[in-house]
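Weekly structure sync - notes
Attendees: PM, LS, DV (DV joined late)
Agenda: review two folding runs queued last week.

Item 1: First target. Sequence and structure tokens pasted below for the record.
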Amino acid sequence: MRTLYHSAFCPFSRKIAFGLKEKKLEFEHHWEVIGKPSSRLLSLNPWGELPVLVDQNLVCINHYVSNEYLEDAYPSPVLMGESNAYRVEVRRLISWFDKIVYQDVFWKLFYEKILKCQLHRIAPDTKVLKTGYALLQEHMEHLEQLTETHHFLAGKYFSWADIAGAAHLSCIDYIGDIHWKQFPSAKEWYCKIKSRPAFRQFLNQTLSGVAPSPCYNQLDF
């Protein structure tokens, strides 16, 4: 028995759900609402963080623990890299998305425009949005530089770096805030990721009251 406690538009949840599918590991979905953890989730993780992965009797309380556990317990296919240098680069990129991009972009755009209204009935702060758009532009420029010279984000091979990047960017793509035409190499990379069978689970997910951007579920856009 393997269960993932997660939410559709939580980038960390998407990261682990994507990784599970890439490793061809079946799991049961236990859907949670962001900001409103169930009593079951709180019994597993008192902080209410998402996601929580339960594999047999092992409880992985967040995305970082789950990520490392999956790579240790199910090493095939290798998603962290074969060499020390490759693994260092994968972890650097994961950290960039999970810490910097998350704070700069998800919280300043997706949370401000969508979750803040849904959870607290508060209108978005235009100053925060302006900052979020500027930071998104900076991060997308860095992503463009990476994808101009790399087949995948860390180099030649698909890895957790691509999984983390796509998990975060897909949430922002849903609300149409990424101008992909400005970033052709990044767009080509994202098309490759969207075409992976393990990623397609996200393309049919919708957010109540919020329509997806026109290209969100298109594999070639």
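Item 2: Second target, run right after the first with the same settings.
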Amino acid sequence: MLFLGDTTEPGYAKTAFGLRDWARDRCVGEHVLAGAMVSTGLPSLSPAQAYARGARAMVIGVANSGGFIPEHWVPALVQAMEAGLDIISGMHARLRDINGLRETADRLGRRLIDVRQPPAGIPIASGLPRQGKRLLTLGTDCALGKKYTALALARAFNARGVDATFRATGQTGILIAGGGIPMDAVVADFAAGAAEMLSPDAPADHWDVIEGQGSLFHPAYAGVSLALLHGSQPDVIVVCHEPGREYMLGHPRFAVPSITDTIELALQLGARTRPGIRCAGVSLNTSRLDEDMANRLLAWETDRLGMPVADPMRSGASFDRLVEACLA
């Protein structure tokens, strides 16, 4: 069951939406609190109803700024455990550090599972080249399609007979893929090393399709974006953008950078560890547009930028051209 709390900003519910869209067969419904203005569209269930439908865990489907669990959420999480559900969280806050959750879990024998736990033994980045091919999605901002783009590209590569693996770098991607490294939970000095660890030496024809994080222009999260770019050493980047978004999510004083500025900066910085890095194209999140308007925008941006521009969730010929450009 997906827990959305009392979230009012859709961008902060990206974990719930990601699981709904990429692991739908494992989601039985959602649970929200009073005041919530965000829904996945899945059935609204109580914890007991979710358990009766086969759920055995409640996933906190929110990734708010700072990754904290508000105190007023705790009774709902306790209720879920009392109904038979374990709790899974991708927040920075650790579940066992919250008294009411730890005590209830110990009393009932429930599991408290924190996904945002980096592995032990992460090395300092070497910057040395390694075999295999790598693609990294980068964004003009947070929560606008980097994960969806990487998942769609990995799936498209495999459909074409290309050996490709989606590499998750955030809590939602890890829940979908079953593994990965939560980059924003890694100590800064080791973050580029974590990216190297995530996409190691591979056969020459193997592709690692790596989920991007944050934005190189973000006032809070640029550090993890740069570490991921340096450590993953991508041969190819795809820049992700949401048309109409003017300001950084959660930081309204800062304007979203242009697609061209993002490409230019990413290529300049990425060349430090991967000379020859190239941008294959752009992924636009056109979910707020109708089909006709989206198609016209994709065509216009393709002409303007001189490279493939597509919305991976709409597929079609534009996405095929983006896939082909990545593999060229």
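Discussion on item 2: The chain is about 35% helix and 15% strand.
Action: LS to circulate a short write-up before next sync.
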